[in-house]
Predict the structure.
Amino acid sequence: MSNVQRFGAVADGKTDATDAIQHAVTAGDGILNFPRGEYLISRPIEILLDECDRTAIDGLGGTAKVIMAGPGPAFHLVGTHQGTADPGSFEERVWQRQRLPTVCNIEIEGRHEQATGLLLEGVMQPTLQGVLCRRLLDGIRLTGRCRNVILSTCHIYENRRYGIFFDRLNLHQANISASHISYNPVAGICIRESEVRNLQITGNDIEYNYSPNVDGSADVLIDCSTAGSTVREATICSNTIQARFSPNGANIRIRGLSPEQNQNAGMITISGNLIGSQQVGVHLVACRGVVVTGNVIYSGHDRNLLVESSRNIVVGPNGFDHNPGYNTKEICTGIRLVDTVNSQISGCVIQDASAGKTTVENSQAFPRLGLVELIRSSRIGISGCHVLDGAPCGIYAEDCSDILLSGTTVAEVEAESPRNGLIRWKGIGLRNLITGCHIGPSGAPALEIAAQAGVMLQANLVE
């Protein structure tokens, strides 16, 4: 192993060890070994995999810390693979010299406002395990063309912008698992201007990636709003994803290019997560083919689920709820679909706070028309749900067509005071059907349906 101290690196956290570590990279045996201590560097350690051959960075069980006191990444790993993940696309030299660059059991801390932890570029099969990135601009950044990325059991904590940043990245096959990704104020995981396929974000604790001074922060941000960006074939599964309120913030935000070109963000499953306490829990914009199921989504200051200009969205079963243990510190919940088509909500329990409003001191009150809102949407099915204690009503629809509301209970069961009815349907629409539903009891008129809304009532129990 290439013990960096044998190349002259001093582990006192004060002496500049940059040249010694770079020498260990170029003249060593490929295993960059950091014994216990703190290593100060002032510029990036460049690891050109085609020149350095197979490479690993090891901090001896996490006892070593690298302090980046200059701009740029502490470690910059550069590969040359230009193929896909298909075995036939690998050049033999690339396979022999560049496969599986590994970084494990090491802490990287920033001492410069532009310092980054790791930058991976053009690499294939990079494997990061037991890495702690703290007080950096970005913890881990990937760019260029990468394949088969594994990041597990890491701590990406208290950085100044992004925890994990996919930046103008062409990537197929990535697993982010069993990690803590927290206190990164713009986003815990951010994907921008990238082409990504086969992404799994699984079994992580992704929390408190927010700032009251950042507009639009998110725990998980997938932004495909620029031409050429695309993220498809992704899973966000079995994570705890929660934060605090930030302006226009979301726990999960997925944004496509436009309603007319909403093919570039989709084929995504959001399943089995605990999601809550931001302005919006899950926010989908210009998406196609997103499934949201098996989650508990709670205490969204604005909405628990907000879907805009999207299609082929499947929701349910989920629990959309508030935290009853908060009592007077309740946050309202809600689901809102706007300009959305060909979608389904089924098997969900959707229950508002008993006060019907946000009662947290100094919390902003967001306007709302109903607990479930459908605005200018069509071919939407709502079936087998419980819509309870909605304020100002349970279900509100406006200018909608081809809506099927079936087998659903809409009632007031724990509301502190009567609301403004249970179902309100306004505007102009066609071929809307409410069938087989239990509507009531309610302390206010159960139904308020405009004559031009195109709604037919069939075999409902109305109390």
Q: What stands out?
A: Residues 18-27 form the longest helix (10 residues). Residues 81 and 405 are 52 Å apart (CA to CA).
